[in-house]
Amino acid sequence: MVNFRTAIAYVSLSIFLACISAGCSRMMTTRHAQLIKDAEAKAAQGDFLRAINLYEAALDDSPRCAEVHYKLALLYDDKMNDPLNALHHFKRYLTLSPNGPHSNDVKNFMKRDEIALATSLSGDSIVTRSEAARLKNENLNLRKQLDDHSLKPRSTPDRTQAHDSPPEKNATKKSRGQTYRVQAGDTLASISRKFYHSSKRWKEILDANRKKIDDPEKLRAGQSLVIP
Questions:
Q1: What dotted CATH number matches 177-228?
Q2: What does CATH list as the number for 2-133?
Q3: For residue 27, what is the DSSP state?
Q4: At CB < 8 A and 24+ separation, what contacts does 81-85 make?
């Protein structure tokens, strides 16, 4: 009789613990989804610090958090100008999802952030990270191509257009490209990602707007930029 009652008690306890475990699992999943939803809302509102805190609260070591690490890395990269933390989360993304949909972009972002981080640690604390990276790692071939492109209409004018408008005017129209009005929270990297699906072409946007951009890290909301 005692053994029978003991067995019944063990079975009941096992069922009870299983129910609690299932309930906790659902609660954790719901909490994880809610944290991510709240983080995305805060990021959209421009409250990047709060968004980062919420994303980090949703982290665990499961593969499902690879996307959270990716979003955190982008926030640190584009909004906080913090390549060190961005690199950490990019690496965690590759660890959890080495063949994920963002893996190729992440590898390129990491190369850029490693250069920016190395530059920021060079001892020159007066120059900002992005400005130092631009000065020390400027793509000379790209600059030469842009210079050649801007000079080409003047050196080989099209006679068929001479009667319609001056060569200088045509060259200006050709070199302008499309324009973009800066939104609150935009950075050169985020604008590059918006138009080129990669943040590494931010230097091209900077080069095309030298006279308009005083500080690459502080874009003014409402200003119009040329997107080459």
A1: 3.10.350.10
A2: 1.25.40.10
A3: H
A4: 81/128, 81/129, 81/130, 81/187, 81/217, 83/113, 83/114, 83/116, 83/117, 83/120, 83/129, 84/117
Q: What's the CA gap between 209 and 78, in Å, rounded? A: 19
As a whole number, the mean pLDDT across the chain is 74
Q: How far apart are the two ends of the chain, measured CA to CA in Å?
A: 86
**Around Cβ 193, how many Cβ atoms within 10 Å?**
20
Domains in the chain: boundaries: 2-133, 147-174, 177-228
Inform me whether the pLDDT recorded for 153 exceeds 50: yes
Tokens of 158: 């099209």
C-alpha closest to that of 74 among 99, 98, 100, 43: 43
Q: Model confidence over 76-131: pLDDT tens digits?
A: 999 998 888 999 999 999 999 999 999 999 999 999 888 877 776 654 444 455 55
